[in-house]
User: What shape does this take?
Amino acid sequence: MIAFFLITSDVVYLVQGLEVLIMTSTSPSLQPGSMAPYGALPVPRLTPELLKLVRTGTVYSLTVIHTEGMPVPGPMVPYTLSPRIRHGDLTDIAPASAAAEVITMSAHTGTHIDALCHVGEHQNEQGIPDPDGNVRLFSPDGNLVSAAETGTMNGQTYLSIAEMPPIVTRGILLDIAGFKGVSVLPDNYQITPEDILGTLARQETSVQPGTAVLIRTGFLQHWHNNHPVYKDAISGINLEAAKLLLSQGMILAGADNMSVEALPPLSHPVHRFLITHHGVSHLENVYLDDLAEQHVYEFLLIVTPLRLQGSTGSWVHPIAIA
Assistant: This one.
């Protein structure tokens, strides 16, 4: 059985069955097997230093489960699964039997990673944030790229998730909720630099150049309850905390919430600072409870985005090996 992807600028459709869906390529130069630096992410290399992070060999799954009714950001298409082929339908392959389904969901559903084309910033001609200005996207040389020139009906032609390499790097957990002595942070709590430094000291760990930082707020408790605050009053880092983590060497930001940063404000200052201006992608809706319960604060992190041509993100199943 073959799986196909139909991609638009907002939604990725996964189709399993007998119908072939043809997707128009938006980056002919991108080839299977090719890898290049992507924003703050380098081409991965498993070094002796990274191997030293594996002490017991325990593998931790850091993904949520996709189910009907799971929380998604307001503008996004909800997750649905519909049977396409039932066991016994394909009589021509008997005595074999097969079943397959159609799945629809946004690329920003469940545990996923943001492409650098996902978030831009309205700017005036002087490069100053301006709601009436043109939208610009991250560029490695600092000269932001006009979003009007990169979006097509077939998706994004610039820095789509298909260009992101696999991630193999040092990861650390910042259990902010544990540091605060609560199971979940208050609604819309803004994690400060003081919270970051206090948690690092409590855990006796550090952010180093090339580190992925995964932040535990406890908000997945609201995910499981499908509580509206999971979407409407998110606790996460504030801009000053993001600046601190970047200055210490963070190359990937993740959290057990829908946005990494605290929302509101809806102007997404952390997204704009990290993604648009510094090429630091976001890993969202990450399951971190097992790491926190077992006090695993440092590990080898592996994340493998799907190479979805034109997409602004990808579903992922990250693993931590400690």
In short: The radius of gyration is 20 Å. The longest helix spans residues 193-203.
